[in-house]
Each structure stands twice: as C-alpha cells, then as structure tokens.
Amino acid sequence: MRAVVVRSFGGPEAVEVVEAEVPEPGARQVRIKVAAAALNPVDAGVRSGVFGGAGKRIGLGWDVAGTVDATGVASAWSAGDEVVALDYGMVKPLGTHAEYVVVDTDAVAKAPATVDAAHAATLPLNALTAAQALDLLAVEPGRSLLVTGAAGAVGGFAVQLAAHRGASVTGLGREGDEELVRSLGASGFVSGDVGADGFDAVLDAAVLGERALAWVRDGGVYAGVIPQAQPAPVRGVRTEAVEVAADGARLGELVRLVDEGVLTLRVAERFPLEEAAKAHARLAEGGVRGRLVLVP
Questions:
Q1: 42/89 Cα distance (integer angstroms)
Q2: Exposed (0-12), middle (13-18) or buried (19+): which is 2, by Cβ within 10 Å?
Q3: Residue 74: predicted pLDDT
Q4: 203: β partners
Q5: Considering only CA atoms, which of 288, 82, 270 is closest in space to residue 174?
Q6: d(CA 139, CA 221)
Q7: Edge-to-edge strand list for the sheet holding 168-172
Q8: Helices (H) and strands (E) in the chain, counts
Q9: 28-76: pLDDT as tens digits
Q10: 224 with 115: CB under 8 angstroms?
C-alpha cells in the first residue's frame, strides 16, 4: 500500500509517499481502508522534528474516515462498517495518511450519516481537542468564554460546542472572520484589543499564551492546546493544557452533533495522497479556513 512518511526532518519537501506493508490488526483493533484523512498542524510539527524520532521512518496522519476492512479478536466492529477514528501518536511507523491504518477498537465511532468521508475526516482530532479542553474549563450555561483562534479548526468546534452548552461565547479572530465566527454561535467577536473585562474562561486555540491569560478574570481558568505548555498560574487563575485522548464513545457523541446540525465540518481543499507534499506546502502558507484533506 501507499503511505505518507518522513525519513528526515524538514519542510514540505521532506514528505514522501512510499510503499509499505498493509498492517494487520491485533486483539481489540480494527483495520480501516482509508477514504479520507485530514492534514493537521501537528503533522507539520512531526515532519519538522518537533516531537523527535530522528533516524526513524515516521508515518503522518491522525484523523481518518473510511471502512472497516478487517478486525482482530474482541473487536466491537465488523467489516464494512463506515467509521471515523483518531490515531493518536507523535512518532509511529504508519499514520492515517495511507491506504490502510490499524487503530484500537475503542478509538472508533460510526461515521456521520450526513456528510461525505472528506468532511467526516476533519472531525476526530480537532473536535475531540475542543471538547476535552472545554471539559478542563468546566464550561457551563451562563459562563463567559473567550475562544482565541475562533475561526480555526479547534477554535471553531469550541465555539459551537460551548454555545451548544449555553455558554456566552466571544471569538477572537481576524477582522474578516467575524461573519464566520458569529455563524458558529459566538455572541461576541473581537479582532484586536479584547478589553479590560475578564472572562470566566479562555480557550487559547491560537496559542497566545500569557497574552490570552491576561484576559481571564481573577480566579478564572485558562486552557491551552499544547500539552504541558500552559503559562504559570497568576491572580488565582487555574491554567490547564489539553492533551487529546482517543475516545470512541466521545467521538460518537460528536458525530451525533454533526448529524443534528450542531457541528459544522469544513473542508478547505482536497489532495490526492500522492500530492501530500503539496498539501503540506499549502498548510505552511497559512490562512487555511477548514482542513486540507488527503484522499487515497
């Protein structure tokens, strides 16, 4: 099968499409025939060596939508099931940017019925990150929440999920993003100075760090999206950072919200698998609204 890997670190030119053996599922695992797989900033980090692994062949890709092709013993899934999954892991020999991928059975959820595979592939990593970050923030009805990077993938899901929970959501983004962010459910929008009034909670999807921490009210809570990289607590503010975890049951809840129209899935552009390097180059250009998706 074809798979996207890096064998040396660098820019988009480091991305290779190679021939690899089709992986076999073990106990409590499933093999998925990949229909679509999203490209995320974490893939660029892996490619450039941020997470280590020098000297190894590293597979890229965390998100997948496709069809169960084979199962190991004690799997809850059957061949032919249409599914989505998160394949967590920074340094792994194969990722979801391939024709087949093996994942743990409890990382899998039934695919949304209302969207195609390319859109479904944009859900797992970013929506799970947003949902788990909101859990850290204990977002409840009536609480005020600022989401930085509100037009991005994680930020966009966070706005929709928090608004669905009944929070009062303000999105921080670029001037041209206001219509989009408000359409996702934000009641407020800022593009420059946030002002002096503090928020009960800040979800810092734009990775602004201490700048975003300053916008939390005394005794509030801040959550970042880079594990263990949150700023130090100040003014009684609790600071957290989400480390996304594969969770098929939670992913199934998010799929239900897609089918109910609560969550919007955004595909910016599709690339064939053999043009993975081109997709990385497009991601590096910035300004992508939605996800770039690889299609085997």
A1: 10
A2: middle
A3: 84
A4: 147, 223
A5: 288
A6: 10
A7: 188-190, 168-172, 144-148, 199-204, 216-224, 238-241
A8: 8, 16
A9: 999 999 999 999 999 999 999 999 999 999 999 999 999 999 999 888 8
A10: no
Q: Hey, what domains does the chain have and what are their CATH numbers? A: 2-123+266-295 (3.90.180.10), 126-241 (3.40.50.720)
- Give me the long-range contacts of 165-169 (CB less than 8 A, separation at least 24): 165/134, 165/139, 165/140, 165/141, 166/140, 166/141, 166/142, 167/139, 167/140, 167/141, 167/142, 167/143, 168/142, 168/143, 168/144, 169/145
| 3-class secondary structure per residue, 129-150 | HHHHHHHHHCCCCCCEEEEECC
**Which amino acid is residue 229, in one-letter code?**
A
Alpha carbon distance 39, 206 (integer Å): 17
DSSP letter for each residue of 246-277: --HHHHHHHHHHHHTTSS---EEEEEEGGGHH
- CA dist 218 and 34 (Å) reads 47
Angle (CA) 15 10 295, round 5°: 25
Which amino acid appears at position 89 of this protein? G
Contacts of 249 (CB under 8 A, 6+ apart): 106, 109
Return the SS3 of 279.
helix
Please name every residue paired with 82 in a beta bridge, in sequence order, or none if there are none.
67
The whole-model pTM stands at 0.96
Both tokens assigned to 245: 């975890």
Q: What's at 192, amino acid-wise? A: G
Residues 205-224, mean pLDDT to the nearest whole number: 96
**Separation CA 31–CA 22 (nearest Å):** 9
Distance CA 20, CA 9 (A): 20
Query: What are residue 67's DSSP bridge partners?
Result: 33, 82
In the block, which residue shows the tokens 């880079």? 226
